[in-house]
Amino acid sequence: MRPLRSASLACCLLAACSSPPKSPPAGDAGTAGSGRPLPPVFLWGVSTAAEQSEGGNTTNDWHVFAGMGKVPPVGMADDMWDRYDTDFANAQGMGANEFRLTFEWARLMPRRPADPAHPTEADLDPTALDHYRAVVASLKSHGLTPVVTLTHYTVPAWIDNPAAYDADKNLFTDGSPGAWLSPQTAVAFGGYAGLMAQEFGGEVTYWLTENEPEVDLIAGYLAGIWPPGLALFSLTEKTLPGGVGLGDVLRNMIAGHAAAFHAIKAVEPAAKVSLAHNSIAFEPYTQRPADVAAEKRVEFLYDFLYLDAATSGNFDTSLVGNGPLEYHADWKGTLDFIGVNFYAHDVAFYYQGLLPPLEAIPCDVTIESALGGILNGMGCPTTNPPEPVGLTDLLVTYGQRYHLPILITENGGNDPDPRVKASYLVQNVLALEAAAAQGVSLLGYSYWTLNDDYEWQSGYGDSFGLFAVAGMHDGPDGGLPAGVDGGPWEPGPSTDFTRVPRTEATRAFSAIADAGYVPESLAAEYAPDGGD
Fold first, then answer.
1. Residues 122-141: what's their mean pLDDT?
2. Helix 305-312 and helix 387-402: axis angle, to 10°?
């Protein structure tokens, strides 16, 4: 969930706080030399997103929001639109056999179809369609299995036009449905997914319908810092356009996922369909009963509510695990595997009256940034438990709760130091091995991300890439170049987009991908006391 992606990585290598971890540290089970339990057929890859990497998109809601001055401009991002062959060759050169990317809905379908529920190829932009066909062909030629995301936060402007929202009238004046405020979006998304399966089903096996719907919910509809830019600081109060609440928004997101699942399966029954679910390992800050109960409510809302609905069909109307349940038959069984984006191991504690019925504080720095930086002042610690331990715990919990295989769809460290990044990678893959040793079925691991890129409201200030991009950090002391009139920097045609490997990190990835596990020498080199 980065600020909202990057901040959550601040805790990745910090010492544990006072609350004891729920399981032994990663490395006590399943580490290199103790069975190497990762399956021999395994996806080792990297993850990207269209808005963050391709650049140049002017047809989605994020572009509108940036034009309103709400978020930094994207510009050309890291220019993956023109440099995908180079990027795929770099991934192949590291030993990757998988690559996660987005088919950008707004590029492919920039105008509203006459029938959004049943679009045809005539509704697709031919240039964008030819581009993604070339991308898939290039992936295959580089030996990379595509994992395709259908919406990574952004949607076409005809689905969500933040500039058309009239706060006084509490409606979108152009008739756009306001993204996930409306069931219309779920219907249109299902139509889009089915059309993508028709166009690419023979070439793509793994599909992710949505990316981190819970992050989208928090940032776009609770805090209002992302499109559509609506603030509602209550889980239950109904003041969003159309008289809907956050539960209704989440229902529409789940319905969209289910519609996409069924549409893809109708075309390609053998396809493997899931979503990329941002997941946080939580534990109570203290063992006081009130804190323990609060942590369970937070965990249910953030980690289980959506996945429970997509596996059992049951939607908990309390949002926090208290029921009653609302059954949706068409949602049941709409996950072939679980896609996990993981960046944080957090604590939570009871706080009366905060976000009823949650009445808890989740001490996550990304949630902190979305809520205006108030949580530390309300009692959150400044450090959280170590991330790898939480990853093992979470995977074991998901394995026992859902009995589905798991694909790590994102996990990455925001530090430009190649050694720190290599250590992060090693420790988190060891955490996977520990989970596999406890019986968790794992499909693969995708590192976030290949190149430094656009990180949402952080713009270009972060360094998640295994490769740096030369022009992004050419300012004083390696910082960003100056923006126009003192504003945020925006990459343009004169930017030097040369990919520069962070060699120690890329070598660590290569060694792991080549062996299929963390070699003993690498585990020793990057042991927490030595590399972190």
1. 98
2. 30
Please say whether the beta carbons of 260 and 188 come within 8 A: no
Q: Which amino acid is residue 51, in one-letter code?
A: E
Per-residue confidence (pLDDT) for residue 22, from 0 to 100: 33
Domain assignment present for 20: no
Residue 2 belongs to a domain? no
Domain contains 424: yes
> Token digits for 7?
């901040």
Q: For 164-206, what is each residue's pLDDT tens digit? A: 999 888 899 999 999 999 999 999 999 999 999 999 999 999 9
User: Total domain count for the chain?
Assistant: 1
d(CA 58, CA 74): 10
Report the CATH number at residue 208: 3.20.20.80
Query: Left if phi > 0, otherwise alpha if psi is -120 to 50, otherwise beta: which for 168?
Result: alpha
C-alpha atoms less than 13 angstroms from C-alpha of 509 in its C-beta half-sphere: 33
Q: Could you give the CA distance from residue 5 to residue 80 in angstroms, rounded to a whole number?
A: 20
**Helix (H) or strand (E) segment spanning residue 448:** strand 442-448
Q: How far is CA 355 from CA 2, 63, 302, 384, 423, in A?
A: 22, 30, 13, 22, 37
Give dist(CA 419, CA 49) in Å, integer.
25
State the number of CA atoms in the 13 A half-sphere of 45 facing the CB: 27
Q: Parallel, antiparallel, or unpaired: how do β-strands 43-47 and 98-102 relate?
A: parallel
Q: What angle do CA 169, 70, 11 make, to 5 degrees?
A: 120
Signed CA dihedral, 357, 363, 364, 370: sign only: positive
Q: In sequence order, which ranges of 99-228 are alpha helices (DSSP H)?
A: 105-108, 126-141, 183-200, 213-217
What residues contact residue 175 under an 8 Å CB cut-off, 6+ apart? none
Positive/negative CA dihedral, 285, 289, 294, 296: positive
Residue 359 and residue 298 in contact, taking contact as beta carbons nearer than 8 Å: no
Q: How far apart are CA 532 and CA 527, in angstroms?
A: 7
Q: Decide: pTM greater than 0.85.
A: yes
- What's residue 13's pLDDT? 22
Q: Which residues are CB-contacts of 367 (< 8 A; sequence separation ≥ 6)?
A: 1, 218, 375
Instruction: List the domain range (segments joined by +) for residue 87.
Output: 7-12+30-531
Q: pLDDT tens, 224-237?
A: 999 999 988 778 77
441-472 burial code (b ≥16 CB/10 A, e <16): ebbbbbbbbbbbbbbbbbbbbbbbbbbbbebb
